[in-house]
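Work Package 3 committed the consortium to producing structural models of liganded targets before the mid-term review. Because experimental data for this complex are still outstanding, the team generated a predictive model from sequence and the ligand definition alone, so that downstream docking and mutagenesis planning could proceed in parallel. The input record is reproduced below exactly as it was submitted to the modelling pipeline, together with the SMILES string for zinc ion.
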Amino acid sequence: MQKKKKHAGNLSLLGGRPCLDFVNTLDWRGSDQPQEFLETYPDLIAWSRHAGTISRQPAGRITQRSKSQLSKQTRVLNKAIQLRESLYRIFSALADGNAAANKDLETFNKFFSRTMINSKIVKTPDGFKWAIEEDQANPEWILNPLIRSAADLLISKDLKRVKKCGDPACGWLFLDTSRNRSRRWCDMRDCGNRAKASRFYKKKMAKRK
Ligand SMILES: [Zn+2]
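The resulting structure, written out as tokens with the ligand in place, is given here.
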């Protein structure tokens, strides 16, 4: 059976938090050939819709192909990558038991402070919650839910549960919500299975000697 081709709009969401899933849009970070899933602005929109971080297409922006529109889209994509990579370095350092670099936290805080302008507190039946307003004048607003998600995780108790996939070549991050904190793989059916097969093969070869 042929595996369905992976793209931004169908990528696995196994991170447990939108900010970690966002980090995982670069696959095989630890290998010679990392795979980028956010190559274009439409990829970023497709992923955001798929991950549920935006509920609808930013108004009329994606189909317009004017020069100024394209340069705006490129700027947003570049910002998204800058945000993603700073988040990767922060969470990856923490998952390894190290401190996050000040430089990365500064980068993140620049994003975060801008997000506050579009944030408000709203009433819900269960109490109050943060809400993020769309800012059509600034297309970067689509990154705000991811910035918010990262900020929430950084100050939560769950931060200790952020882990890296057991396959160093994979590089995916996830939140280990298992009771005994035993999750090792981003996906048992993927990296977990590959490791199992490789262990089995090595055992078999060792027996032959
Ligand atoms: Zn993995």
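Reviewers should note the following from the model. The mean pLDDT is 90. These observations will guide the Year 2 experiments.
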